[in-house]
């Protein structure tokens, strides 16, 4: 039986900075009012009820998440203005969605999917 991906974690040296970055970039509700300062991200609306799908491929070791946005170009520009770095401009995956990627201020690779 297929088990869905239901969570993610983004790590960095300055957790408060990353929490603020993603709060501003994607409008995420993040609550870190706990003894560990762990930023719990509330689920958004419109996501798949069964969880998200994913893929496994060859490449440098690491974990990435993809966030659905209305405009890849605008989101990349906003990420860069906030200290991130675009690493892949919008690209049409053959038979699939249009995607892009950026690195957050801590260097984590984050993918974007056009809604």
Describe this entry's structure for a reader.
With 115 residues, the chain is α+β, with helices and mostly antiparallel strands. The chain has a single domain (15-45, 63-114), classed as 2,3-Dihydroxybiphenyl 1,2-Dioxygenase, domain 1. 19% of the residues lie in helices and 25% in strands. It has two helices and six strands. It has a four-stranded mixed sheet, covered by helices on one side. The protein has a two-stranded antiparallel sheet with strand order 1-2. β4 and β5 form a beta hairpin. The radius of gyration is 14 Å and the shape is globular.
Number of strands: 6
CATH class annotation: Alpha Beta
CATH architecture: Roll
Between the first and last Cα atoms, what is the distance in angstroms?
Answer: 28 Å
Question: Ranges with pLDDT <50 over ≥5 residues?
Answer: none
Order of helices and strands: HEEEHEEE
Total of DSSP H or I helical runs spanning 4+ residues: 2
Secondary structural class: alpha+beta
Reported for the largest beta sheet, the result is:
4 strands, mixed
Question: Which outline best applies?
Answer: globular
Helix content: 10-25%
CATH superfamily: 2,3-Dihydroxybiphenyl 1,2-Dioxygenase, domain 1
CATH topology: 2,3-Dihydroxybiphenyl 1,2-Dioxygenase, domain 1
The value of Rg in angstroms is 14 Å
Strand content: 25-35%
**Average of per-residue pLDDT values:** 90
Major sheet: arrangement of strands: 3-6-5-4
Number of self-contained structural domains? 1
């Amino acid at each position: 039986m297929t088990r869905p991906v239901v969570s993610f974690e983004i790590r960095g040296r300055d957790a408060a900075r990353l929490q603020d970055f993603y709060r501003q970039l994607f409008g995420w509700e993040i609550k870190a009012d706990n003894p560990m300062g762990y930023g719990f991200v509330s689920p958004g609306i419109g996501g798949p009820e069964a969880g998200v799908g994913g893929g496994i491929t060859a490449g440098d070791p690491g974990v990435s998440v993809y966030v659905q946005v209305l405009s890849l170009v605008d989101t990349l520009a906003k990420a860069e203005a906030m200290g991130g770095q675009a690493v892949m401009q919008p690209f049409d995956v053959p038979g699939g969605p249009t995607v892009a990627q950026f690195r957050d201020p801590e260097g984590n690779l984050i993918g974007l999917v056009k809604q």
